User: Fold this.
Amino acid sequence: MSYLADFDPEIAGLIEKERLRQVNGLELIASENVVSKAVLEAMGSIMTNKYAEGYPGKRYYGGCEYHDMVENIARDRLCTLFGAEHANVQPHSGSQANQAVYFAYLGHKDKIMSQDLAQGGHLSHGSPVNITGKWYTITHYGVDKETEMLDYAAIEEMARKERPKMIVCGASAYSREIDFKAFQEIADSIDAYCMADIAHIAGLCATGQHQTSVGVTNFTTTTTHKTLRGPRGGAIMCNKEYAQDIDRSVFPGMQGGPLMHTITAKAVCFKEALHPAFTDYCRQIVKNSQAMAATLTEAGFDLVSGGTDNHLILLDLTNMGITGLEAENTLGNAGITVNKNTIPRETRSPFVTSGLRIGTPAVTSRGMKEEEMVQIGEWIGRVLKDITDTSTIARVQEEVKALASGFPLYPEIA
Ligand SMILES: *Cc1c(COP(=O)(O)O)cnc(C)c1O
Assistant:
């Protein structure tokens, strides 16, 4: 990045500091990943120079012939990856993908039933502080108090009582398998639409490590930057019967010009995800998550729902006598990046919380396996046992740096 260093050394210097932070640290935020050099090159390309409002073959600007080809390739690859009939790759983010689906089929104040943010859901599923919570009528289901898992009988009963026009499933902090077929059946029984938001688990769904919602629920939305390991962005998949409504809702309904450099990078990401090595990667994400879960359980941590089926673990820190905020800050000082998270029986504010969310997608991309997960789990235990023990924190930070810097930052697909 020599041009940047010459013209703007201040920004170039900060990018370099951030690169070193990523290289020397352990990234355990469940929604993050590291992208390949091929994805980075596509994202940083001259494809950013073009306005391409509209869709391939129907643009509102001239000069889009190559952008048409790129967007068609991105759509086709995403359809192949998930076995989808139709894909829209233009949403700027996962939240925008969700809003586009709502906007296509719901009117002001129509009712959405979704998983509570405090119990694993997402802001864009109708949180009161989000536009979706202000514009639509929202009712939330949660997890069962005992099992801390989704209870489909209770969700069905709630759906019959509440009569939402759309049921949303999918979560940001839920470590168990989601039964998409059960959600669609519940929606069908009350004549509602069903949208699955697979933002977190898209890579797992695409490679058979988690059941897929595509072809099962009416709509599937996703981000492209979590387990799919692409550029930051969103996408929507659906059957042909919904294609026109969805496309119109994204553009001109919600967005103007698509981010064509990002769509170009999405195309590259989908090619990587279609490679057999990506299936191995996703399988390893789950193995790593389960190895980490076993180590943390052994170290005395209380896992929400008792374990994990996917890429993440949610710790209930109540028995450790510390808050999520304290755990996040202390592990941060040791070079381990995680995020505080609410737990199902939360008593603290969302800024403090009683929980910690830990995910394996990024460290798995760097090539770490079960052995490293056991090591990292032990470090987490050591640091959180006494968060005032600064010498332990300093020692762990040295060990973290030695481990992390030995693994490449950029994943390679064969
Ligand atoms: C991350 C996430 C999103 C949206 O993400 P953006 O930050 O808007 O790209 C949507 N839904 C779920 C369940 C998520 O976890």
